[in-house]
Please model this.
Amino acid sequence: MEALKSQSVTQSKAALEFVLGMKGGNGDSSYANNSSPQLKIIQAVKPILEHGIYENMRFKFDVGGIFRMADFGCGTGQNTLVVADTIVSAVQRLLTEQEMPEFEVYFTDLPTNDFNSLFQMLPPPRDKNGVATRSYLSAAVCGSHFTRLFARNSLHFCHSSMSLHWLSQVPESVQQRRSPRAYVSSECEEGVAAAYLHQFDTNFSSFLKARAEEIVEGGCMFISLIGRNADTHIMEDQGVLGYSARHLEYAFEALVMEGIITKEKWESFNLPWFNPNLKEVESIVKREGSFAIVSMKIVGGMNAHPTTDVKKGEENMFGRIVANQHRALFENIVEAHLGCKKVTNEFFLKIAERASIQFEEYLSKKIELLVAFLKKKKDKQ
Ligand SMILES: C[S@@+](CC[C@H](N)C(=O)[O-])C[C@H]1O[C@@H](n2cnc3c(N)ncnc32)[C@H](O)[C@@H]1O
Model:
């Protein structure tokens, strides 16, 4: 096969919005079938989310009132529905003493998200006897959450899980460099970490500003994203992302060695992803100024993979599971960069190969999750 030439469509903002989505459908490597680690995260932080709602949401609805919430970067699959059910149930419990509003849930994500599969999973609002089986009405809203997506003062609650670490683009200065490192690491030249942090700052500030305009007075927001405990940016401090980046780099390198892609193709790939620490997020929230921090912390110790043990003889199966998880997250972006389905398949076979050999390294990886409950400040319009 002739070595593929560089054609970077994965680095800039306009292009990324059309390739960033998780893998749709219900196949073996779809996000819907490979997001159990994310579901564990949603379940682990549920008490923090519910506590925040009970302690901070004070609304009084009149007859005919509507409670509106939006899930930003909702993705597709069971996780999305669990989030909606959790929030609606918590608010219903909070409001038992007063007039119950109707609930509207907006599922929001990039246009590439598989909304069709998501809506096919939704239980019908009523069963054949007319009894309510779903406690909310729903709609999809497409677009980048770094921009305004809703009317002013229209949302009571905003949620985002496992999405805000994705950037709108690879930082411009990083796009110029040629490096075998797909992400911030100790081997990266100076300035790369600062460029990623700056990009995260720009994106996250835009997210806060847009939500502040959309949320009603007294409204709240709960976010969870992959964070990091460390002050430094070295690969080893990036937990699961550092390890995933190593998988991607290994696959690129293997394809170069086999003459399938050029070295330039490998070195022009960068992940639009940043894991912030508490200090970084806190300083952005304070500087942007629209939200008060009710609580913010790093939740550590969760396994990055559903399996904690791989028995002898199960290594290849484990490798395939890891490759499928990486396909669910990165296939769209990798295929857009490689520009060829066949080569993309080869790429993920390399990841399966590496994961089956190095499974012990993978099993020890933990996720460091950054969670924050924010409340819109009174003086903000
Ligand atoms: C890992 S999935 C998380 C899905 C779901 N919230 C969960 O916890 O399972 C990340 C989602 O964020 C979405 N996303 C990334 N950047 C986005 C942006 N700028 N605007 C809207 N959605 C975005 C992706 O398309 C993807 O569906």
